Write the structure tokens for this entry.
Amino acid sequence: MTFLSLIRSSMAAKQPFLHGKKFTRPRRNFYSQIPISCSSTNSQQALSSDSFLLEKILWALKRGQSINTHLFYQLNPSTYTQVLSHCRNDLHTGQKFIDSVALNYPNFKHSSLSLSGAVHVLVSSKRISDAQSLILRMIRRSGASRIEIVDSLLGTYEKCGSNLYVFDLFVRTYVQARKFREAVEAFRLLNLRNIDVSINACNSLLGGLGRIGWVDLAREVFDEMITRRTDLNAYTLNIMVNVFCKDGKIERAKRFLTEMEGRGIFADIVTYNTLINAYSREGNIEEGFEMMRLMRGRNLEPSLLTYNSIVNGLCKNGHYARAKGVLNEMVQNGLCPDTTTYNSLLVECCRKDNLVEAEAIFNEMLSNGVTPDLISYSSVIGYFSRIGDLDRMIGYYKDMQSKGLIPDKIVYTILIGGFSRHGAIAEAMNVRDEMVTRGCQLDVVTYNTLLNGLCKEHMLCEADALFNEMVERGVFPDFCTYTTLINGYCKKGDMDRALNLFESMLQINLKPDSVTYNTLIDGFCRVGEMKRAMDLRDDMISKKINPNCITYGTLMNGFCNGGYLSDAFKLWNEMVDKGIEPNVVICNSLVKGYCRNGELDKGFEFLSKMKSRGVHPDCVTYNTLIHGFMKEENVDLAFDLVNRMEKENLVPDSVTYNVILDQFCKLGRMQEADTIYRKMIKGGISPDRSTFTSLINGFVSQENLKEAFRFHDEMLKRGFVPDDKF
């Protein structure tokens, strides 16, 4: 039939309809008939119009002509699907139609059915990427349910001459789009319609669920798989072993291995590596070694990944020497350690502050041609940052840059932490500026590190400015941010600002913890507002935050400083009743309280109470009592306490000597003061500014200027500059 005959037959088909409409007689039920007549007429017109449009598009496609643009704007999803159905045996024409619509009518409103037809044609044409793009479009369409999509794919399956790979791609696309619940629903809907996707698609779904830790759902899907299929493979085995191990069910994973062996599927090196890694992460190193022995028993040689898991497990569990032994075994077996191997050893050395070994490992990496990565450098830089060796910290940082490694926010934050902790705020801010220049976004941890440094240096105006910058850049402060600022203002004694920050914290639903409360309590104790400090303790309890040893110690110290020793002991009793054991800091506060109250005998007796509770006095304990007895001019008991210190292997420090020496100077007993000074030097304790101040003032008060100037000269030799106290 020619194109003209098609037009004539179409026009002839319309004439009786038009004549009928013209001579239609009104009936008794006029109003009810009019809509029916119009509906019927419109339907026939639409069908005729769609058929006419279909034929025109097919004619143009078969002739290899371009489709007129105005035809695209008449196109609807139903006609689109019919065109593809007619092209099922001519994939080239079908592709041409899909591409023409996409190019000339990009805003064409597809239905699930039309998209499904296009997907089938594209899959059959091996255009998998384009087909997947359309599946993504289909699953993201507003209001399209999984049932509708599955039924559309099935409804166009035979009409468009496709193959079952479409359903594999459908499930895989959900997995790749991280729509895992939807993927499981699609998988189940296909099962209900007796469509079994391939084992590869099933493995893809199981693997996706395992990666995000949806262990229970992965196990459900696996149980559904084994009821319908027998083509499970080693990939299925390894995915499920990984799922069980992630869930901490290692023994269940081993039982699963036995079940799969019954199905003729056996563990490979990947399986054993997964189990060894799981045992190593749990610290069950012996079981990891047992797995290695089983591997070898099955003629599977441990790989680099196997050894790396063992080395990492040993290091994390404190068995560094044994980890080095495994490293040597690797080399003997012909395996070359890589960056991961060395990093495990390096991180452990730095964690244990073993600098000599850490640098030896780092140099061994370089000599063996293994390039250190960001983890390697951040470990060493972090060590020097922690101990305050800022020059070497910067040295390794520059070395890292010379190797072409670009620092990330972790490295920058370590540098900022090193500078901030050791008072080099200007350098810390310079690192922050470098971060911004390089386009590395500061996160809440970086900001908190900077804020902590500023607050420690009492630079609260700068801390406030940084806090405002943080908020403006869309970095949300956390409870650590607020606690850091609160601590800064508490140390300054600005409790109003500290409380304002606390209230702001509550308003944005950040829940304070015991650290936040303890910080505020300490602030109020410092300014002597014990009632408000106790109110905060009560507020803690009302919010189900249990006061801890620090809470009680801070409050007791506050009461002791104010001379309220009875209130301090009430808290002591409450703390003990709650099963919280006192520590030496708390005990020292109470000893100080006794001394300030002039109850030195009770303070001395308290030493026995401390020891009975397993708390051993330290230098602070003894220094406090020695100071008290020296003030009372009870020199014999003060020296007796010094002797007791030494018997308990506590070396008297500069504070001990200065307490005794200062009191002798105040009493004018300069010969004894000089003896203490000489004993101090002989004991290897370096005198400080306080030592010389006491001696010079003591000799001046005795009008012995010769000795005063002698100690003045000695002070200058030791690098101390006189101040207005002399």
In short: Residues 1-47 have pLDDT under 50 and may be disordered. The CA atoms of residues 101 and 107 lie 9 Å apart. The longest helix spans residues 30-62.
